Amino acid sequence: MDVLKLERISLLDHPQFQEAWLQSRIAEDASILGLGPLILKDRERTQKRTGRLDLVLQSPGNDRLYEVEIQLGKTDETHIIRTIEFWDFERKRFPRSDHCAVIVAEEISGRFLNVIGLLSGSIPVVAIRMSGFRIGEKIGLHFTPVLSEREPVDDAAASDEPADRLYWELRADPESVEMADRIFEWIRKFDGSLELKYFKRHIGLARREAPDGFAVFRPRKFELLFELKLEPSAEIDQLIEGSGLVLMGAGPGEPGRYRLRLTRRNMDRNDAVLLDLIKRAFEEARVGELP
């Protein structure tokens, strides 16, 4: 087997490769970013006051939009601010869609990862490091997500610290808490003795004061993270994928949990699917219990 020698190159310092060239390569096949099968929605979209947004990508089958800002070389303060401004403008322009800010750069320092990580607690942000390689007479591109969307990392000691509904309405927003209420009413169809318990890290369930962890709510600005404890299966994966719901990766140390990013719009479209998933999770949690 032959081994190819890869020579890493700087796209910023190379006279042949400009940002427009890189935009074209991503536009031709957006899946190279490593965010799944995305399609090009727009390129160089003009925004008042903020300038031109490099790329707008869409996840097929749902309304999730990715506002992508590309920078050759190293990230800087203006790059992060500009990316968030583009995301915010598009979110306000198309409030019925789900939005995610994407930063792409050749070098993303630890300092800026920390800054972006703090922002990801309230703003969905993905950071991707791109690398260019010379392979003979050709150029190869490699994209590595170095920061994925994730919930804010809270102090572990606060995980069991009690809170109340007002705490979450102020920390997130009333609409996302109302979305949790709506799902809770569906859950109560299977067990009317369940009640909501508010903590500073999440909203959980309890039955006769005993915690019941088959479902967890994490309200955020403009959306709700909803987790269900379910044994992973191809059938469930296909059900979620076919619905257009946004599935996030499992949290650290949380195997067997499906994490869904919900907006009011995709909830309205998928109430039957969500009810089915809740029923499966409820029944799995009750296996082996005495009647």
Helicity range? 25-40%
Q: What's the number of extended β-strand segments?
A: 13
Number of helices: 8
Quote the distance from N terminus to C terminus: 62 Å
Name given to the CATH architecture of the largest domain: 3-Layer(aba) Sandwich
CATH fold field value of the largest domain: Trna Endonuclease, Chain: A, domain 1
The low-pLDDT segments are 151-158, 250-254
CATH class of the largest domain: Alpha Beta
Mean pLDDT: 81
The outline comes out as elongated
Q: Compute the number of structural domains.
A: 2
> Which value, in Å, is the CA radius of gyration?
21 Å
Strand content: 25-35%
Structural class by secondary-structure content: alpha+beta
> What profile does the largest beta sheet have?
7 strands, mixed
Series of secondary-structure elements, N-terminal to C-terminal: EHEEEHEHEEHHEEEEHEEHH
